[in-house]
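Project standup — Tuesday

K.O.: blocked on the structure for the chain from last sprint. Re-posting the sequence here as requested.
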Amino acid sequence: MATESMATEHAPTASEYIVHHLTHLTSGKQTNIIDLSIVNIDTLIWSIGIGIVGSLLMFIAARRATSGVPGRFQAMVESVVEMVEDQSKAIVHGNRRFIAPLALTVFVWVLLMNSLDFLPVDLFHNLFALAGIGHSVEYFRPVPTADLNGTFGISLGVLILMLFYSVKIKGIGGWSHELVSAPFGTSKNPIFALLLGIANLSMQLIEFIAKTVSLAMRLFGNMYAGELLFMLIALMGAAWTGWNTQSILLGGAHIIAGSVWAIFHILIVLLQAFIFMMLTLVYLGQAHESH
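H.V.: unblocked you, prediction finished:
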């Protein structure tokens, strides 16, 4: 009885449980809202690891591809490749030798990272405890896309490609002229031309920032909310106190809500990967066009 009482006393509350699982394994303690000296180690491990896994899967699919009747794996990969190729062809009007494979990489990578949300909430904490390293790895989050740092890293990569293709397609002179002449145009009057140039440049900078921020926030917000809901549903099952009405109702709600949300979350995982890929194509397609 004393042991049970101590275990209950030291058990985390619902808020402590959620905060614990939403805390990253970091290289140090963050003291400011923006601290570039801090690295979320778990996000790096999973994003790089999943990137390698995705590359190996596509490599295996390419090596095993046959001209005959395809197997299930080859058929699935071919469907994804065809879908990405059709979308890139419709959006990007120019050389797509790099952009189409890039869009495929983004889709597969984000999809696999999103899919980590289906792993049990306490899986890695229990594994670390069994391995005897739970005391040294107290925090560990396995979903890189539920970390704003991870999604911002990808969106910054898209921003760099947008700038690269803007200069490559239009030339440094053409792109510089576009920065100060679109969307409001220019004027032959030097004063109006200067004012319009400042306004156009401001709008262009705001557009680049908005694209980058919205691309990162959209993916992060959906995956973070999904992860949080999984934890709240898990807490319903953890509220079991015996064969009483409240526990039975919470346990039943835990099973039903968990099943429904898991099925619905499959759509979210797929949809968010598709949206991120589509927006990447749209932004790179816009970099090919002149205003």
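K.O.: great, moving the ticket to review. The longest helix spans residues 190-238. The chain has one domain: 19-25+36-287.
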